[in-house]
Design brief:
Length: 218
């Protein structure tokens, strides 16, 4: 069986790794990249829909696929406006899901974070938790939520704090044993591989993958 998929957030760390996995999979026949700017990629499998995400509703007819992968996200450094931050991390993914469901969507896969909790005092984890709760109540036939810990990989833009954490993780990861093992860093490519692998199983229901399970499934 071959699948038509939509990828949102394909220029980010996990998204770019996932795009590479999708391109090389024989079971993925068509990839629609939904983004604010063109990728510059030339591939017969890939189509691009360049838009303002506030206008998603007006592109509903184009957002038909078997599977949607959402790797959309931002940081307070890139998006200091709290309202826009909420749109990118919560409202846009939910809008993509609901439009997709109206067009016969079978699966929705999304990256949140380890520790996501709507009751958290941490604003980032609280927002991710709110997103997860909304997704769980959506009624989508197959929902997959991936909760990675600190991500390792080469980003297009250099983040000094992440460069330091990448170095420190070499020392810290071996010390994280027992209950702390779930906090070990994980490669973005590992998350991407697991996302594709789980999508090809055509599972029904809601599935939440903590970082350690993502590692084991890859």
């Amino acid at each position: 069986m071959s699948y038509k998929v939509i990828l949102v957030g394909g220029s980010g760390l996990i998204g770019s790794c996932l795009l590479s996995e999708l391109r090389s999979s024989d079971e993925i026949s068509d990839i629609l990249l939904v983004a604010r700017s063109a990728s510059g990629i030339s591939d017969p499998k890939i189509r691009e829909l360049i838009l303002n995400f506030d206008d998603l509703d007006s592109h509903a007819e184009e957002l038909k696929a078997d599977i949607i992968f959402s790797c959309l996200g931002t940081t307070t450094g890139k998006t200091p406006d709290a309202n826009l931050y909420r749109k990118i991390d919560l409202e846009y993914p939910l809008k993509m899901l609901h439009i997709g469901m109206n067009k016969g969507l079978k699966q929705f896969h999304i990256v949140t974070s380890i520790g996501a909790d709507a009751a958290s005092s941490n604003s980032y984890l609280k927002l991710k938790g709110e997103l997860e709760n909304s997704l769980k109540s959506s009624g989508v036939p197959s929902l997959h939520i991936y909760q990675p810990s600190f991500l390792k990989g080469e980003r297009r833009e250099k983040r000094p704090a992440e460069i330091i954490m990448n170095i420190l993780s070499v020392i810290i990861d071996p010390l994280l044993i027992g209950p702390l093992k779930k906090y070990k860093s994980i490669k973005a490519k590992t998350v991407a591989k697991t996302m594709l692998k789980q999508s090809l199983k055509d599972l029904k229901g809601t599935f939440i993958y903590p970082s350690i399970q993502i590692q084991n499934l890859s």
